[in-house]
Known about the structure:
Elements: H1 3-19, H2 23-36, H3 41-55, H4 58-71, H5 76-90, H6 93-106, H7 111-124, H8 128-141, H9 146-159, H10 163-176, H11 181-194, H12 198-218
Helix pairs in contact: 1-2, 2-3, 3-4, 4-5, 5-6, 5-7, 6-7, 7-8, 8-9, 9-10, 10-11, 11-12
Amino acid sequence: MTKKEKADQYFYKAEKAYEIKDYNAARNNLEKTIRYNPNDANAYNNLALVLTNHFKEYEKARQYFEKAIDINPDSSWFYNNFALVLETHFQEYEKAKQYYEKAIEINPNYSGAYNNFALVLENHFQEYEKAKQYYEKAIENNPNFAEAYNNLALVLENHFQEYEKAKQYYEKTIENNPNFAATYNNLAILLSQQFKDYNKAKQYSEKYQELSKINEVDY
């Protein structure tokens, strides 16, 4: 068996381990993949994701994301993943912004990158109009993107006072994902404060509490 074949075998094992939530095995197999094929960009990216999401080893994850991009600078997915880590765990918002821009430049139809980029623009640069446009772009590319509808509703409510539109987008979020707990809370607050529809607000608030309890049990 060649080194490349061994690497592919370990990569496959890592994927299977991840599917059953055996993150230690996933990590070990990805490390072996890289040992046998030091130019496997996907292995570096996946290992970085495992280290970020399940081991909190952010500095090491950062190095692996950089290595993945160095090997394959044309992957929009790598740039998006790295930007998310830079934003969330290093507070390097300017750099994250640049990587989201790169992800979108490579793949102008990447809904997730538009949504993530919009969040950075809204929360860290106060560029609300641009954030609004990128949420809309995310939805245009993926009309079933519940999170983007919720985020667009929030920006319309909080920064544009477009309450009717915000209400419609919260409803659209629920239509696309009836288990999106936060939206029920957001909609309850909006209905109570801006529409004085206290009965409906109470129903949505109760649904939010119900889903929150289920999520706690699942966790």
